[in-house]
Specification:
twelve-stranded mixed beta sheet; mainly beta; five-stranded mixed beta sheet; Fumarylacetoacetate hydrolase, domain 2; 19 strands
């Protein structure tokens, strides 16, 4: 499959052929495993997350969606930003802050924008997508979805991205992709983008009705309900059908900084 990836230490995206099942890259006549390559986060723009876009996620709130301040389910996309300090990469270490007992995994399909997107028509919205990537939207567990959760979602290293960007035309139907999360090789979460409240074209149209998405920006389609919790030492693998695998390890933030690993 055609994809773009970035070698660690380089600023340029490379066009490569990849196998999202085996997580390998074809380099000339050779096939290399990602485990043998040092690759960087392939994204340079702003990352926008979407809350409450999986049917089960909204249903799990129950009557809480009728509480103040909104008193009803959302009628427009609920967005937040993962700033640049959160950016991490495939194989990168995710720091567990001191005093936090567990972190929440946020497995998300990322839509990488290919051209300036303003007030898109749902019928041609996908043509503004350059490709797809995997994002691990890490959070400190918290209850409220209404107030800005900056201290819970915007800590250093809390947004792992990659391992590459699969070109749009290589994915036949992004609204029907299986998603799985493995913790220490054990399956802990399984869902599909078929369960999105706003399918991808609709989400793009609704978001660009009130804001511009620029080339290189990434829009996360949402995070499924029942997000797995992880602790120090846990190994995470997020698999999205046709996109690949994104792997990371949770480490003690204080110890990793002391050892110069972060």
């Amino acid at each position: 499959m055609k994809a773009s990836m970035k070698v660690l230490g380089s600023q340029e995206l490379l066009s490569v052929a990849v196998n999202p099942v085996t997580n390998t890259v074809t380099l000339g006549d050779d096939e290399a495993s990602l485990a043998d390559l040092q690759i960087d986060n392939p994204v340079t723009g702003t990352i926008y997350g979407t809350l409450l876009n999986y049917k089960g996620e909204l249903e799990s709130l129950g009557d809480a969606v009728y509480d103040k301040p909104y008193s009803s389910p959302p009628n427009a996309p609920v967005l937040y930003i993962k700033p640049a300090n959160t950016f991490n990469r495939n194989g990168g270490l995710i720091p567990m802050p001191e005093g936090i007992p567990a972190l929440e995994i946020g497995a998300a399909l990322g839509l990488v924008i290919g051209k300036k997107a303003v007030a898109l028509d749902e019928k041609n919205a996908l043509t503004y997508v350059a490709g797809y990537t995997i994002v691990n939207d890490i959070s400190v567990p918290h209850d409220s979805v209404y107030r800005p959760a900056v201290q819970h979602k915007a800590r250093d290293g809390f947004c792992s991205i990659g391992p590459w960007i699969i070109e749009r035309d290589e994915v036949q139907n992004p609204d029907d992709l299986a998603l799985r999360v493995f913790i220490n090789e054990k399956l802990q979460q399984e869902n599909s983008t078929v369960n999105l409240i706003r399918p991808i074209s609709r989400l793009l149209a609704d978001v660009t009705e009130f804001m511009t998405l620029n080339p290189g920006d990434v829009l996360l389609v949402g995070v499924p309900e029942q997000a797995p919790l992880v602790q120090i030492g846990d190994k995470i693998r997020i698999e999205i059908e046709g996109i690949g695998n994104l792997e990371n390890i949770i480490v003690d933030e204080k110890e990793a900084k002391w050892r110069g690993l972060l």
